[in-house]
Amino acid sequence: MAIRLLLAEDMNMVRGALVALLGLEDDLEVVAELERGDEIVDAALACRPDVAIIDIDLPGIDGLTAAARLREKLPECRSLILTSLGRPGTLRRALGAQVNGYLLKDAPPRELANAVRRVAAGQRVIDPQLALSVWGTAETPLTERETEVLRLAAEGLEAGEIADRLRLAPGTVRNYLTTVVTKLLARNRVDAIRIAREAGWLP
């Protein structure tokens, strides 16, 4: 019986190539193809895949948030993150979301099919070199609220818009941003966003 797969990847060409690649395997079947993170849970509930292959950078909601929600709503569906983000901080976030696998897009094609089979069998699959690098990486110095404010700033929102979104006073938002810049030893807000992204502390 084939392993049923849900594939979430926002780049059409990459998604098509992955579907074709997985289709070469007799024991794997892609039953759903998506390009948005906020479609994953509903699609999974409808088609009941065994494994969800999820990119991190998805519109709607990011792949790690979607994977965490999927685990809550459909725990029997295992999740395999397939991403170009090889930063230790991002892997740390993925482990926090309790994903079953984490594979980089530059891995040999054969590794994807093998990773899917291992994840479906209940194993956890993580690139060993990337896993080792996590041990030497510091946790984020930012609080959950500071991260949320910085994430919205990274999306291009101004302090007033962030304040409206989070139901805070604009002055409070500016204080959060100042604290973030100080904590990250950044030159300014843009530099803080860059530092946090490179460390994998922002979705």
From TrEMBL:
Signal peptide residues on this chain, from the entry's feature table: none
Domain Response regulatory: 4-120
Gene Ontology MF terms in the entry: DNA binding
Domain HTH luxR-type positions: 135-200
Keyword Transmembrane: no
Modified residues (4-aspartylphosphate): D55
Recorded coiled-coil stretches: none
Assigned keywords, A-Z: DNA-binding, Phosphoprotein
InterPro entries, sorted: CheY-like_superfamily (IPR011006), Sig_transdc_resp-reg_C-effctor (IPR016032), Sig_transdc_resp-reg_receiver (IPR001789), Tscrpt_reg_LuxR_C (IPR000792), WalR-like (IPR039420)
Keyword flag Phosphoprotein: yes
Pfam families, A to Z: GerE, Response_reg
The protein's name in its UniProt record: DNA-binding response regulator
